[in-house]
Amino acid sequence: HSETVDLLLFQLNISGLTVTTVVIALFFAVLRRSVRRAEMRWWVYGWVANVVALVITSLFWYFQPPPQYFGFIFAFYLAAKFTYVWLLSRGALEFCSKRPPMMTAAVMVPAIVAVCLVCIFLLSTRDRLGLISQVVIAASFGAAAIEIARSSAPSTSWLAIAFAQRALLSAVEAVAYGVNVA
């Protein structure tokens, strides 16, 4: 009985997070129409990718697929989540007038696809998925926070702080997942 209640609460939590993320994506889509800055499109696309990742998560928890499908499901989730991280970081760096060559689609799309293909075979548990995804988010958003903080662009400290906080949260989550994996 307790496991059923826990599952229901988790499903409700993920559903709420998905709806919240849809609202954030819509906010950025509307904001993009009024604020004509180039980086806005990356933020909109990034939030849409995060919505896709959360929809995959919601479907996973609602339908409870058998473990033999975990690798494929996790790979699609990671592709969406890593795309979210890439596009949000790219938008933030462009906001600071930085355009690193490593952030282009020609570099990032093949890298994301390659990592996700490998993960099909390596990720067999939710804890491993959590560890990998949170390490990548922590490292990526941490690196973006440093680059944003180092930029000479005016009024970007708020953005550096936001990226640093998200990186820290992901690092703590990665430790928690790592304990379960170990």
Distance between the termini: 28 Å
**Cα radius of gyration in angstroms:** 17 Å
Largest sheet: none
> Which band does the percent of strand residues land in?
under 5%
Structural class: mainly alpha
Q: What is the helix tally?
A: 6
Helical content class: over 70%
Poorly predicted regions: none
Shape: globular
Instruction: Give a count of the beta strands, DSSP E runs of length 2 or more.
Output: 0
Mean pLDDT across the residues is: 91
Order of helices and strands: HHHHHH
What attributes does this structure have?
mainly alpha, globular, 6 helices, 182 residues
Briefly summarize what is shown.
With about 180 residues, the chain is mainly alpha-helical. The protein has six helices and no strands. The model has no long low-confidence stretch (mean pLDDT about 90).
Characterise the protein shown here.
The chain has 182 residues and is an all-alpha fold. It has helices spanning 2-34, 39-63, 70-95, 105-122, 126-150, 157-181. The longest helix is centred in the N-terminal third of the chain and has 33 residues, at 2-34. The radius of gyration is 17 Å and the shape is globular. The two termini are 28 Å apart.
